[in-house]
């Protein structure tokens, strides 16, 4: 009886959250706890004339960073790279030139792979930071939706228009620029495009058949179309400029594929327990009650502000995406709201879902 009541409460929360918010055109959420005998896979809204379907693939935005970090950790465990390696060992001199000049000092050679992973490189964020003069990157891509951007082009734009924030290791600043550099390093050491490396090391082994990097191909085509993605209430799903999302946010997946990933991560089937511990421990303060490690957001107890019951780990994205594990209830919480700038609403939905499970 308790399971049925909990399931009904979660479903009601999800559908009410979507229906009352004019910015949410389609949304997806999966909640799974074997401990509490819960499995819910839901969708609400629509993609064009088609009702949203729980099996539908959608952009997972910065949830991609956890997958990127795990991919990096796999290569570390294989001895191909090290968290301590300087990025200058792998990247081209023209890309590195004037990459990190802070208050007249060039710190480029001091940046290590670990700094990219936990956003302590001090580098700018090409997607969120605004230049002192000229248009922001978001404005630029909205004006040129048909232009394809490579990760390298995004980094070069950032070098030319943005300023670093601190020396490496001396401060936290969320940086998509850093994760794009990480993606280029992975391409360098594997001699393969980033999408192919994802498929080889993660998607194929876990049978994540409907997951792929934007503008590449899934292992198996979905029976449902790609969910519409919005920015400023504009449908940008087919914009070629989304190619720039790359290692920082360019993965498309489904609720069920992401559940396969998180279960494999929790069960130490992708990387060892000690490596996951390192990813969680080498962290910096992201927000009050949230630390950011190597691609991992870790919610920690802050009296009143962040109660212990919300202790989860995983990652979240600016489109209201989330992929977390709640150890206390052994629950996986996965979903997305598919509209940029809805990150807080996605996290709120996840925390409210935990409330329903704990009642």
UniProtKB/TrEMBL annotation:
The UniProt entry, under InterPro entries, shows: AmpC-like, Beta-lactam-related, Beta-lactam/transpept-like
Record-level Gene Ontology MF annotations:
hydrolase activity
Keyword Hydrolase attributed? yes
| Coiled-coil region | none
KW Hydrolase (keyword) present:
yes
Gene3D superfamilies, alphabetically?
A: DD-peptidase/beta-lactamase superfamily
Q: Which residues form the Beta-lactamase-related domain?
A: 40-334
Keywords in alphabetical order, please. Answer: Hydrolase
PANTHER family per record: D-ALANYL-D-ALANINE CARBOXYPEPTIDASE, D-ALANYL-D-ALANINE-CARBOXYPEPTIDASE/ENDOPEPTIDASE AMPH
| Name under which the protein is recorded | Serine hydrolase
Q: Which organism is it from?
A: Neobacillus mesonae
